[in-house]
Amino acid sequence: MFVNTQTLLATLSIGLFVYYVIKRMKYRLPPGPWCIPFVGHYKIYSSVEMHKKVAELSKVYGPVVHLSFGTQTWIFLNNNDVVIEALVKKKADFAGRPKLASTDAISAGGKDIAFSSYSPAWKLHRKIAGQALRNYLQGDLLENMIQENMEKFLNKMAQEKDPFIFKDYADSMVFHQLYTICFGQKLPIDDPEVKTLLKLEEDLIDAFGSGFVEDLVPCLKDLCPTAKWKKFVQKAEQLEQFIRAKYRDHVDTFKPGVNRDFIDSLLAAKEEAENEGDESILQKLDDTRLVQTISDIFLAGVDTTRFTMDWFIYFMTMYPEIQTKCQEEIDRVIGAGHPSMKDRNKLDYTEACLFESMRLGSVAGLGIPHMTICDSQVGGYDIPKGTLVFINHWALHNDPKFFKDPEKFDPYRYLDENGKKKPTRPDSWLPFSAGNRVCLGETVAKPEILLMCANLLQRFEFRLPNGEKANPEHRLTGLGTELPAEYKIIVKDRVTKK
Ligand code: HEM
User: Which residues, at least 6 apart from 24, have a Cβ–Cβ distance to it below 8 Å?
Assistant: First the structure.
């Protein structure tokens, strides 16, 4: 029997239309702007300003906004009430992850933590990765590692005679730091392997930021993939091979009781399960999943951390008087010694500046998309099972209800009248998100970044080159990620007061 193309298209369109009408009748979906059916809000999807455009829409439609992409419905949560309702009060309902062609390609089909569906395997790997991070970084290991790593970079920075781009340093510092955490080795600053890895990572991020048509129409990746998609898959494979090789090296040289790095900690956890003979656990601890867990810790941690560092120094050069206050605090608390974990609770003002940098510097503005694992509700609307849900962290961090004059850099938002850290942060401050999928690295990232920033400000005064004014522009890279417009700085060695 022959079916011509017109008949096929007409049948497909009617089928989709009926599906659309039934869905609309069955559920009370959140509101959103009108769009051409099936084409959807493609213009918003392909915009690097999606987070801002959606925040604007929420002023018209309320905190829960609905947009359509192809046959998919995407929901955006834009204020603290609806985010807490979804992520904390109904946390299991919203703890899924969508199965997208791109996230599947980079995670061996969702076998990692960040893009894995809400499943017993995800729970086990998240638990083991958290445990491995804690085991490996216990005691003064993290601070010693930071100290050694920073020393190399500070000495190099001191030799800069001309204005230079700080971001290049932030990238390398953080890459070397996480390289040591994950793979155990301490490499020279100019090591070509780290540079190649950094380039690979940047290419992947660039591709992710501007989205893939293959995510909206998955069959395209098999029928006629775009050049961008082919390049992305090739880079993702390259990265996987790199991490797999490191993993294999560790398996071959692993000695029980010797913990060289995060990979050894994972292998120790696997060995424990083997000794206990728990078959159900062992099945979930296969090599592919362990390689993907390492890849997650490396990738999820690197970008967010290096971008946060860049924002911090940007604000410090933009507001020299705030920088001076941080340095006075650092001199008072630490003196000429090395910044350490025990100082952390006394660096209230510096930490408040870091929190404010995390609020205004949107490094994960739309976070990682969630998916409902059952029919649920939020803000009084129905959210059907399988709906993709974005948390608009940018909107939360710019909500004037929680942050007066949200565009202003103001560390006092986190301090009491005596200049001490308030016991809690404003409710709408959620850079690490909340609920079941809360950032796994939060407890590492906060002290790690603070110590790195304290090291920088203790050693140098950061200034814009003479006569230059700070550029208030931001660079938008997609998925709500923003960076400062490229800026150059000069540094001046400080004489630390004891
Ligand atoms: C400034 C630093 C960081 C920020 C702002 C940040 C932010 C986030 C956000 C917004 C999410 C998504 C949460 C959600 O789905 O609701 C996330 C997930 C995640 N982060 Fe981070 N992160 C940072 C550093 C790190 C570091 C250093 C690591 C690893 C050592 C890490 C590991 C992860 C992992 C594995 C996930 C996925 C969790 C899951 O899906 O269960 N992050 N992070």
Answer: none
Q: Which fold has domain 5-493?
A: Cytochrome p450 (1.10.630)
Place of tokens 């729970």: 123
Tell me, in angstroms, the distance from the centre of ligand 1 to residue 251's CA.
Answer: 26
Ligand 1 lining (C-beta closer than 6 Å): 113-114, 126, 296-297, 300-301, 304-305, 308, 363-364, 367-368, 370, 391, 431-433, 437, 439-441, 444-445
Say what the pLDDT of residue 2 is: 53
> What separation in Å is there between the alpha carbon of 468 and the centre of ligand 1?
35
- The domain segmentation of the chain, as residue ranges, is 5-493
Q: Which stretch of 210-214, 252-256, 355-359, 489-493 has the lowest confidence by average pLDDT?
A: 210-214
Give, in order, the Cα–Cα distances in Å from 320 to each of 22, 72, 224, 326, 487.
Answer: 59, 47, 53, 10, 15
Mean pLDDT of the chain: 91
Q: pLDDT digit string (tens) for 404-454?
A: 999 999 999 999 999 999 999 999 999 999 999 999 999 999 999 999 999
One-letter amino acid for residue 58 of the chain: S
| Ligand 1 centroid distance, CA of 101 (Å) | 21
